[in-house]
Design brief:
The chain is an alpha/beta fold and 464 residues long. The protein has 14 helices and eleven strands. It has helices spanning 2-14, 16-32, 41-45, 61-72, 94-106, 117-133, 148-166, 171-174, 192-200, 248-258, 313-319, 348-382, 405-418, 445-462, and strands at residues 141-145, 183-187, 209-211, 231-236, 261-265, 290-294, 306-310, 388-389, 397-401, 424-428, 431-437. Bound molecules: pyridoxal-5'-phosphate (PLP). Pyridoxal-5'-phosphate (PLP) is lined by residues 88, 147-149, 191, 193, 238, 240, 265, 267-268, 294, 306.
């Protein structure tokens, strides 16, 4: 151990490896905008180089960085550049990346004010900014988690806690096995992570009351069953395929009257509330009780960055602590009260930096920019004989289909093989489709032109 200690101390002090790491990172950025989006077969083959038994003796730090840069970087997917349209994955705002690099040196653990006063301060500030940006009730609180999956889990846990409290049922003491029934109402197009969160919280998928949806994937308001005070209703701001939004105003008013809890899964779509030209999509969101969203999708923060917002501080804090006791807020914010984890990295610093960099105007421009890309792409692709756009492009998602399932699948594979852009496949209303998601600030009109070209080449080759 003595030897290792001496070596590590030298590495910390002479900083050579940090310079090397930043140098390699910069080199990556210089190349990635023009590189193939998905790794080449050759690069994927080279991943074999990582296969080895757990080493007995360690090796030099410089050599490790070099090895990872040589064989790891080529096997990355070019998500930081402008031609990745897969899933709903965001790019990265440069200042967010820079802050991530700088604050990596700080390696803060952020559960408490006492472990990181700066993180505690920034969480307090960003919480206020978020409430302001989304026009939420002033008593709302925020927890900073790894992503929307975790945020949804937190929101639904808060809902469960509040409902059991109303029913005078001691959930922490008695547990779930003999608990009174809570009703769960979701749309048929709810994201898979919503069902996962429900399962983790002890709600079986067969117990979920599923509401029929419109051809765009929105909950049909008149098909919602009668709501009551023991119901959790989960809505969606941005369908992961079509980008569609539920009718929050009408649904939330119904829910309010019935005293049901409404959670909104707004992973990428909630941010439309910050764009003056798109904000009608989110009318009424302020009437819900909890909201989950991502920084790492449409806001283009580095991974991993998710947010839970909740208008019931007592429920959120109590639900996330096994003691069940409401934790007194000290003069300073202890971030762990609002999240399931204790130790966490300082992801708040990247979120803060990006808000400060973009401001309201910049966020509006960023979010509306995705819509413009989606419109441009959908108009161009619809002009090509053999392609059809399946959804109303209300935000950033475009669903494209060829004449048959078979041609759609073949074309998709060909587009992926070309590596000029990357898009994924999905199923929409029982048919195979190609999903194109515009989610990176880096995408330009030229990038979209290249994508269209790729789609053209792929379609003609799969029709041969
Ligand atoms: C991506 C997504 C999620 C899951 O978010 P993660 O950040 O990946 O955990 C949930 N809901 C919707 C609508 C999404 O698009």
């Amino acid at each position: 151990m003595k030897m290792i200690h001496k070596q590590m101390l030298a590495e910390m002090k002479n900083k050579e490896i940090f310079e090397k790491a930043v140098h390699e990172g910069n080199k990556y950025l210089s190349e990635i905008f023009d590189r193939n989006v998905f790794p080449t077969e050759e690069a994927l083959n080279e991943l074999k180089k990582f296969e080895e038994p757990m080493p007995k003796d360690g090796i030099d730090a410089n050599a490790i960085i070099e090895f990872l840069a040589t064989y790891g970087a080529p096997a990355t997917v070019a998500q930081v550049a402008g031609r990745y349209y897969g899933f709903v994955n965001g790019g990265v705002v440069p200042v967010g990346l820079a802050v991530k690099i700088m604050t990596s040196f700080w390696d803060q653990n952020t559960p408490l004010y006492l472990t990181s006063p700066i993180a505690s301060k920034l969480e307090t500030i960003v919480e206020k900014w978020l409430i302001d940006l989304f026009n939420l009730p002033k008593n709302s609180v925020a927890g900073f988690v790894s992503g929307t999956s975790m945020a949804t889990l937190c929101g639904l846990a808060a809902a469960r806690w509040r409902i059991y409290r109303r029913l005078n049922y001691d959930l922490e003491g008695e547990g779930l096995q003999n608990a009174p029934k809570i009703r769960i109402v979701v749309g048929l197009q709810a994201h898979g992570t919503v069902v996962k969160a429900l399962n983790l919280l002890g709600f079986g998928s067969k117990q979920i009351e599923k509401v029929e949806v419109t051809p765009q994937g929105q909950i049909q308001v008149d098909k919602i069953p009668k709501l009551d005070e023991r119901t959790i209703l989960i809505l969606q701001a941005g369908n992961v395929n079509s980008g569609a939004f539920d009718d929050f105003s009408r649904i939330c008013e119904k829910a309010r009257k019935a005293n049901a809890w409404v959670h909104i899964d707004g992973a990428f779509g909630l941010w439309t509330a910050c764009s003056s030209r798109l904000d009608s999509l989110t009318n009424g969101i302020e009437l819900a009780n909890s909201w989950s969203l991502d920084g790492h999708k449409t806001l283009n923060t580095p991974y991993d960055n998710g947010i839970i917002l909740c208008n019931d501080e007592e429920a959120l804090i109590s639900a996330l602590h096994t003691s069940g006791a409401y934790i007194n807020r000290s003069a300073h914010r202890d971030g762990m009260n609002f999240t399931p984890e204790m130790s966490r990295r300082g992801r708040i610093m990247e979120l803060w930096a990006i808000f400060k960099y973009l401001g309201r105007k910049g966020i509006d421009e960023l979010i509306y920019g995705f819509h413009k890309c989606a419109l441009q792409f959908s108009e161009k692709i619809a002009e090509i004989e053999g392609y059809e756009v399946l959804n109303q492009v209300v935000f950033n998602q475009v669903l494209v289909r060829c004449k048959t399932n078979e041609i759609t699948k073949k074309t998709l594979k060909k587009i992926q093989d070309l590596r000029e852009c990357w898009v994924g496949g999905t199923e929409w209303m029982g048919k195979d489709a190609i999903r194109v998601s515009f989610c990176s600030w880096a995408t330009t009109a030229e990038d979209i032109r290249k994508a269209i070209n790729s789609f053209k080449i792929a379609l003609s080759s799969s029709q041969l």
